[in-house]
């Protein structure tokens, strides 16, 4: 049985205005979670994920911080319509952008709202480990910096092992590859956590790899959806989909996900984010194997039991059977 990936009502206890366009929602949500994880919420007829800015190791309350995206549907609706006492429908916390069991330094590079999971990780790392922690936080200007006071206060409390460097685009231009390499310095064996706008992620990841950092040591959390690759021609093999008592078999297509195969077979399987975050599309592989492009929702033991995010799963064996609950 996969763990609970359903939706649960939670009450907003209070809302904290962090900057002109970022708010923290303190939720009455007694869920266990790990630093760096996120919730997926239902709003405006769709789903969006938001990381916890709180840490389970230092905060009594669960908090998530949302920044307005210009023209964005859900972030603006939350800012404009939600008040303390309102209810939201959310999944249990999920995600794999978490602390690893290592004594290696933690180096984080974040931009804008990407600081949200980073703050959670930093608080937990400082509270529960002896690791050195360094953060480069990039923002448009001083007014846009979310959690400046919280980060500066942590630096004052842990001067021996926490460094925060604030980068402002208005003063210094966009972060460059040289600045990333300079910040990484000799810490090539650190665990690097990256979270921010897509161009920032691409630049920082490339710069770290060029600096000699092992790809295994770079953990990324992408807030924006990557564009879909169109599926290609038919290839050898079949996919069998079992849903609501119906059983259909279709030929495999190059680059096609199990969800897309199920739709091509005339079925209407559940899905929502199609980004590997919400687990609405979860099903179980009962024959063959498939590989997920992105998995931000399933734990290792669920994958070992055959569970898969069908929106991300591509067959890697000629015959695959997938069963929706
Ligand atoms: C795992 C995960 C964790 C996340 N955690 C947080 C968090 O802690 N805080 C937070 O504020 N957001 C977070 N996000 C982003 C969030 O889920 C939404 O994507 C974001 O709020 C935009 O949604 P929207 O409905 O307002 O905009 P949409 O209507 O979806 O998008 C409007 C336009 O903005 C672009 N866009 C979408 N997302 C972004 C973005 N993040 N930045 C810039 N442009 C964007 C889209 O391409 C589109 O063109 C997270 C996303 C993921 C996948
Ligand atoms: S639809 Fe959200 S993870 Fe697949």
List keywords for this structure.
single chain, 34% strand, binds FE2/S2 (inorganic) cluster, binds flavin-adenine dinucleotide, 3 domains, 8 helices, five-stranded parallel sheet
Q: What's the CATH architecture name of the largest domain?
A: 3-Layer(aba) Sandwich
Average pLDDT, all residues: 94
Amount of helix: 10-25%
Which structural class is indicated by helix and strand composition? alpha/beta
The tally of helices reads 8
The H-level CATH homologous superfamily of the largest domain, spelled out, is: Nucleotide-binding domain of ferredoxin-NADP reductase (FNR) module
**Level-1 CATH class name of the largest domain:** Alpha Beta
Low-confidence stretches: none
Percent range for β-strand residues: 25-35%
Radius of gyration: 21 Å
Element-by-element helix/strand order: EEEEEHEEHEHEHHEHEEEHEEHEEE
Strand order of the largest sheet: 4-3-6-1-2-5
Number of strands: 18
CATH-defined fold name of the largest domain: Rossmann fold
The description of the largest β-sheet is:
6 strands, antiparallel
Number of individual domains: 3
Structure description:
The chain is α/β, with parallel strands linked by helices. It has 3 domains: 7-91, Beta Barrel (Elongation Factor Tu (Ef-tu), domain 3), CATH 2.40.30.10; 106-222, 3-Layer(aba) Sandwich (Rossmann fold), CATH 3.40.50.80; 234-323, Roll (Ubiquitin-like (UB roll)). The protein contains 8 helices and 18 strands. The protein has helices spanning 73-81, 115-128, 148-157, 169-172, 177-184, 198-210, 258-264, 300-304, and strands spanning 7-19, 22-28, 38-43, 46-51, 62-67, 87-91, 106-111, 133-139, 162-168, 191-196, 218-222, 234-243, 246-253, 282-287, 290-292, 307-309, 313-315, 319-323. A 6-stranded antiparallel β-sheet has the order 4-3-6-1-2-5, covered by helices on one side. Helix 5 crosses helix 6. The longest helix has 14 residues, at 115-128. The mean pLDDT is 94. It binds flavin-adenine dinucleotide (FAD) and FE2/S2 (inorganic) cluster. It comes from Actinomadura vinacea. Pfam families: FAD_binding_6, Fer2, NAD_binding_1.
